[in-house]
Design goal:
Structural class: mainly beta
CATH class of the largest domain: Mainly Beta
CATH superfamily of the largest domain: Cadherins
CATH topology of the largest domain: Immunoglobulin-like
Length: about 290
């Protein structure tokens, strides 16, 4: 008697990942939709065999939405949203492989793989002149104030000019890269009265100013290794007459008279001249017409 026996396959094997722990380094300036972990590193196999269904989750709070898989049957991981190193530089993903679709009532076997993704800082920001004020919540844009200073007419200062709110100084906000920055004057000084030190940002004078007009210099800070990353700061230099004398009052003592019952903001009158308002005046020998 010949007996034919058919062996029925039972779902008794779990999917198996080739690697259960992976590490990927992703540059900060990676383009959206770019593949960051290829399919070959993530695919699972099943000895039964079955169709594998994948699902990707994010472990680290605040980093969800940046990475996704291409499809339920394609575990290839791609970048879904632009990265920002200042927001986070490490996240952990968990990839699930199931031999039945999510929600199936059949017995489902599951495997997991952990993917650690490190964000590598890229040269994405231009230099910042300091001090500066952040204009957005994530502190990715910083606006500097105008630098100001004064020089005397017909005089050449032999030292770097003193500026407010501080000396000309810029940094690379991609602080891990910390690219070298050089300075130059690109506008506002047609007569070449001023120079800026390329390395330090110190502002000095080449010759004396001959007019009381103000100079509004444009100083550029540029990264040495990437000239397309630059910023411009305004520097206002006021030319003034030399100030050798302090102001002085015309008299050391002023005497005035007030009357009881006057309304607020009423005049104080000169003592001995009740019809003449009391005036307190000062003069300065450096500014005879002021």
């Amino acid at each position: 008697l010949d007996i034919q026996v058919t062996i029925l396959n039972v779902n008794d094997n779990s999917p198996v990942f080739t690697q259960t722990n992976l590490t990927a380094v992703v540059p900060e300036d990676t383009k959206v939709n770019a593949i960051v972990v290829p399919r070959g590193n993530l695919s699972a196999s099943d000895a039964d065999p079955d169709i594998i269904y994948y699902e990707l989750t994010t472990v680290v709070t605040g980093t969800d939405g940046y990475f996704a898989i291409k499809g339920v049957n394609n575990p290839e991981i791609y970048l879904q949203k632009a990265l920002d190193y200042e927001k986070f530089n490490l996240t952990t993903l968990v990839l699930y492989a199931r031999d039945r679709p999510v929600g199936s009532l059949e017995v489902t076997n599951t495997a997991t793989a952990t993917i650690n993704i490190y964000i590598e800082q890229a040269d994405t920001k231009p230099p910042w002149f300091l001090p500066c004020t952040f204009i957005n919540m994530d502190k990715s844009i910083c606006i500097s104030s105008r630098y100001t200073g004064t020089v005397n007419i017909y005089e050449i200062s032999m030292k770097p000019l003193i500026l407010e709110p501080g000396p000309i100084y810029a940094i690379d906000p991609d602080y891990l890269l910390n690219e070298k920055i050089v300075y130059s004057i690109v506008g506002g000084d047609p007569d070449k009265v001023f120079s800026v030190d390329a390395d330090t940002g110190n502002l000095t004078m080449n010759k004396a100013a001959t007019s009381l007009d103000s100079y509004l210099l444009q100083v550029m800070a540029t990264q040495v290794n990437n000239i397309q990353k630059y910023s411009i700061a305004s520097v206002e230099i006021k030319v003034v007459s030399k100030n050798n004398h302090p102001p002085y009052f015309k008299t050391r003592i002023y005497n005035g008279t007030v009357f009881a019952g006057l309304d607020p903001r009423s005049f104080v009158f000169q003592a001995g001249a009740p019809s003449t308002p009391l005036m307190i005046t000062a003069e300065d020998d450096d500014f005879p017409n002021v």
